[in-house]
């Protein structure tokens, strides 16, 4: 440094034209510096908000993706349940219709070989044997019986021919079945009777019972002969402890025309054929046939009244997805439904989880890439500003060095005294690496 200062001696001030280096920053430069600093902060704030909105937006989009695929899985499961429930309802209904058709054929047989022939070609033993040997054609019935129509004027002659008296049926709500005819009470006088004369061996105890003495059976018989179609009773407990219903067909002297009046149908009725349907056994058999498929919980209800009557299934209906299938058993006055539910809980929607999480991870990666890129650009801009400042400082040092090298010590001292060489230039001269007095 001393050697450099010695070189200044003997130099005149008038030989050097000093550049005007400002002692402090001008107002314009200050505004430019503040504006650049402010724009950088605004730019960083804008990128932060953009990244935040990107993450929030893709979060909502991924939730929508999850909801879309999850809804599709739920709808597919619902369609599967509906398909299985409808299939079981259709099979149950088809088997019921097959049994109904065979009962109608049996009613025609009784009309042909009992009422149309004198003497009758059918006895109790013949009827019971025929019913047993054709039971495979009635997979839903556990027994059949036939009751003949008897007026009060015909009662004495009828009882002498049969060798027994017409008995009263016990149909209280707490009784299981009509009881035993051997100890039953004799039926009191009435306008007409419907005593059972033929029955399958499993139900021989109902022979001689007047079906019109039971409230449910009486309603069934009246509706059957008025409509000319098969009618069903409300569910009741059978002798085996299961729930079942009775299907009743009316037998006429001759088939009445379709437009026959109600009174004509009532007058033409000569008997009533009833079939006992074991609904619980039927549904159990049906579910056993479909055991290879996905198991579902099945309940069958009689929904004729406001309060449904359970015909099959547990009282615990559970919760969750269910499907109702309508059952048509041929009686328009009674309504039946099959309710189905899955026994297992639904599996996790892995497809929805995979797609939504995958999209979310990709979105976060893209956001991280943008953030890293913006951060890198900002760092490069900062480095560029530093380099610009260093460049200006180096240029100022070069100018100062060229000026100072031509000054004498006395002249240099005078320049400093007169502030024609700024301390900023002097600092750059000594502070910038690579510059020294020679």
Automatic annotation (TrEMBL):
The family database entries (PROSITE patterns) matched by this protein are listed as: CHASE (PS50839)
Which ranges carry the CHASE domain? 118-339
Q: Which UniProt keywords apply?
A: Cell membrane, Cytokinin signaling pathway, Kinase, Membrane, Phosphoprotein, Transferase, Transmembrane, Transmembrane helix, Two-component regulatory system
Q: How does it sit in the membrane?
A: Multi-pass membrane protein
Reaction(s) catalysed by this chain, per the record, are: ATP + protein L-histidine = ADP + protein N-phospho-L-histidine
Q: What is its EC number?
A: 2.7.13.3
Gene Ontology biological process terms from the UniProt entry: cytokinin-activated signaling pathway; phosphorelay signal transduction system
Keyword Phosphoprotein (UniProt): yes
Recorded hits in Pfam families, A to Z, give:
CHASE
What are the subcellular locations of this protein? Answer: Cell membrane
Q: What's any one GO cellular component for it? A: nucleus
Give one GO term, molecular function aspect.
Answer: protein histidine kinase activity
Q: Which domain of life is it from?
A: Eukaryota
Gene3D superfamilies of this UniProt entry?
6.10.250.1190, CHASE domain
Coiled-coil regions listed in the entry: none
> Kind of enzyme, top EC level?
transferase
Transmembrane ranges, per UniProt, are 46-69, 348-371
Q: What is its main location?
A: membrane
Q: Which PANTHER family match?
A: HISTIDINE KINASE 3, TWO-COMPONENT HISTIDINE KINASE
UniProt name for this protein: histidine kinase
Q: What is the lineage of its organism?
A: Eukaryota, Viridiplantae, Streptophyta, Embryophyta, Tracheophyta
């Amino acid at each position: 440094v001393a050697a450099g200062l010695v070189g200044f001696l003997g130099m005149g001030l008038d030989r050097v034209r000093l550049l005007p280096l400002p002692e402090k920053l001008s107002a314009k430069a200050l505004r430019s510096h503040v504006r650049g600093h402010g724009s950088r902060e605004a730019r960083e704030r804008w990128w932060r908000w953009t990244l935040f909105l990107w993450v929030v937006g893709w979060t909502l989009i991924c939730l929508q993706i999850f909801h879309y695929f999850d809804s599709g899985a739920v709808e597919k499961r619902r369609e599967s349940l509906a398909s299985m429930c409808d299939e079981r309802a259709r099979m149950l209904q088809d088997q019921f219709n097959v049994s109904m058709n065979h009962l109608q054929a049996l009613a025609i047989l009784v009309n042909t070989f009992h009422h149309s022939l004198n003497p009758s070609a059918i006895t109790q033993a013949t009827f019971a044997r025929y019913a047993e040997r054709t039971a495979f054609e009635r997979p839903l019935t556990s027994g059949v019986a036939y009751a003949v129509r008897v007026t009060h004027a015909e009662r004495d002659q009828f009882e002498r021919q049969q060798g027994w008296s017409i008995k009263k049926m016990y149909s209280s709500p707490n009784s299981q079945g009509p009881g035993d005819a051997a100890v039953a009470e004799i039926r009191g006088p009435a306008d007409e009777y419907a005593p059972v004369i033929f029955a399958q061996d499993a139900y021989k105890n109902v022979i001689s019972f007047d079906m019109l003495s039971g409230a449910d059976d009486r309603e069934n018989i009246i509706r059957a002969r008025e409509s000319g179609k098969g009618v069903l009773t409300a569910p009741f407990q059978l002798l085996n402890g299961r729930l079942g219903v009775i299907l009743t067909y009316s037998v006429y002297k001759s088939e009445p025309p379709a437009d026959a009046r109600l009174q004509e149908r009532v007058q033409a009725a000569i008997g009533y054929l009833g079939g006992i349907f074991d609904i619980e056994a039927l549904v159990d058999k049906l579910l056993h046939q479909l055991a290879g498929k996905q198991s579902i919980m099945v309940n069958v209800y009689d929904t004729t009244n406001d309060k449904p009557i359970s015909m099959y299934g547990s009282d615990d209906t559970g919760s969750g997805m269910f499907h109702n299938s309508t059952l048509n058993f041929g009686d328009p006055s009674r309504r039946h439904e099959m309710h189905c539910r899955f026994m297992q809980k639904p599996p996790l929607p892995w497809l929805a989880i995979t797609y939504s999480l995958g999209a979310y991870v990709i979105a976060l990666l893209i956001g991280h890439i943008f953030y890293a890129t913006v951060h890198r650009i900002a760092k490069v801009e900062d480095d560029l500003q530093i380099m610009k400042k260093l460049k200006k400082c180096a240029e100022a040092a070069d100018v100062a060095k060229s000026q100072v090298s031509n000054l004498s010590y006395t002249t240099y001292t005078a320049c400093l005294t007169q502030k024609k060489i700024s301390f900023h230039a002097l600092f750059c001269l000594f502070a910038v690496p690579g510059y020294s007095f020679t």
